[in-house]
Amino acid sequence: xxxxxxxxxxxxxxxxSAYQFSSDWDESEGNGIxxxxxxxxxxxxxxxxSIWPIxxxxxxxxxSLIGKYxxxxxxxxxxxxxxxxxx
Length: 87
Hints:
By secondary structure, the chain is α+β, with helices and mostly antiparallel strands. It has one domain. It contains one helix and four strands, in the order ββαββ. Strands 2-1-3-4 form a four-stranded antiparallel β-sheet, with helices on one face. A hairpin with a 4-residue loop joins β3 and β4 (65-71). The chain starts with a strand and ends in a 16-residue tail after the last strand.
C-alpha cells in the first residue's frame, strides 16, 4: 500500500509536501509502516544526516492520520582491513 509521512527534521512541512512510499504493512500495523518510512527517509531523503531518533507522522494517501512514532536506528560498524606491504 502507499502511504505518506512527515518527519520532525522539517517542521515547516505540509501534507502536500509529504514523502510518499510503499509498505507491505496494513494500516493497523503503524509501527511497521513507521519503520518502513524511516528506511525510506534514511535511504532516499538524506536521513542518514539526521540526529536520531526522529519523529515520523504517518498518513494514509487520503490524508487520514495513522499515527505519530518515534523511530531510532542502530549503527552497525563495519571494519575493513588492508594489508600494508613494504612497511
